[in-house]
Amino acid sequence: MADRGASHRARRPARERIGDGLAATLAVLALLVVGAPPAGAGAPLTWARWQHVPGVVDVAGPRSDGSLVVAAADGLFLLDPLSGRREPFVPAASAYPGAGSGEPYLALSAGQRVAAASCSFGRDDLFVLQLKPAGGVLRIDAQAHAHGFATVEGVESLTGIAFDTVGRFGHRLLVTGPSRGATVVAAIDCRGQVTRVTETAPVLEGGIQVAPAGFGAFGGDLVAPDELSGNLYAIRADGSSATFARSGLPAGGDIGVEGVGFVPPGFAAGGAAYFADRSTPGNPHPGTDSQLRLDSASLGRAGVRDGDLLVATEGGAGMIDVRCERACQVTELVGGDTAHGEGHVLAVAATPAQAGKTLPEASDLGRSATVQRWLTWGGIAAIAVVALSATGLFLARRRRHR
Questions:
Q1: Residue 353 CB partners (closer than 8 Å, separation 6+)
Q2: What are phi and psi of 245, to 5 degrees?
């Protein structure tokens, strides 16, 4: 009896060691397959360099067919948000001579009606800032035909364009441009009639946007960034302006906040945000000529909600989330890198047909969904094999000790 008891006590620790080893192996394999626990809100994100587009400078959309419009050195292109397929739309010479060195920012019409002018903007009509003449705005219809639309007099150039989708500015097209050390904000109706909103707005440049009605006290205002100070301004329909947030990001010429864009309804259920990264040789942030992309799931895990404002810098494409309710709250999302951001930040919600079909983040970041599924099922199979092998080893040893 004493010998059998000693043998039993010797075998029991061995079984426990086998069990502990099996549990540890399963835990390690589970981490390899499933991945580490997701990062919490506030964890840094990274833009995906999704598509290479030479001379990319802005993105607008989506059109009624779901495609995005991209402004680049060689003209305007239609970009499929799922496949990434790019098709020529309008050559640069037809749309904006000299676009390769300029910033022909875009605004796409959703067909809004301007009651005061008794007309409507055409659905999918695209409006492009022209380099020549200074202050010129070009209209490009859905069939890619270019038409002169309007000219804002007394500005050095035009540096911002957006539609009033809320109505405080009469559902007109808004443009901004520098003049005598300040900024002119002008509203243009669907007949091309120009009305000055103000000639004394703060210095502004880049992708501007009208805030949705739910954006706290600034709903319906024109939201614009100032790269020099890092301030974010709200310009009201009466021409007055206010600083509603400070970005907290690096500031300065070719460095500070450049583009803004609001997160649309339904974004949390699927979609992505886009930002242009233009190659700028010799710049501290040289860029890569890429259409940057961040999927809605990643942004949602970082705390982004429908109705928030996304703000990105020119130098590095760093990005923050701004939420205005009773007060405005700023959260950093993306740390800057070598990117050279331009134009608008465009957040697009997936349509029901696109839901669940959104492309993975980028060719140089992460795995495709198909590969991930294979890795997941392969890992599950590996766990099963290891578990069965360990169990067989345990049973074999137990039989030998009997």
A1: none
A2: -165, 155
Beta-carbon contacts of residue 217 (< 8 Å; ≥ 6 apart): 244, 324
Please, which residues have CB within 8 angstroms of residue 233's CB and are 6 or more apart in sequence?
Answer: 201, 202, 204, 223, 224, 225, 226, 241, 242, 243, 244
| Percentage of residues of the chain with pLDDT beyond 70 | 74
**Dihedral angle sign, alpha carbons of residues 260, 346, 169, 152:** positive
Look up tokens 């639309």; give the residue: 149
When pLDDT is cut at 50, 70 and 90, the band that residue 3 belongs to is very low
Answer whether 63's CB lies under 8 Å from 142's CB. yes
**Residue-range domain boundaries for the chain:** 2-37+372-401, 48-364
3-state helix, strand, coil in the chain (%, to 5): 20, 35, 45
Beta bridge partners of 71: 58, 76
CA distance 309 to 335: 17
CATH code at 48-364: 2.120.10.30
Q: What is the DSSP letter of 295?
A: E
Residue pLDDT, tens place only, 298-355: 999 999 999 999 999 999 999 999 999 999 999 999 999 999 999 999 999 998 767 6
Task: Say yes or no to pLDDT of 240 above 80.
Answer: yes
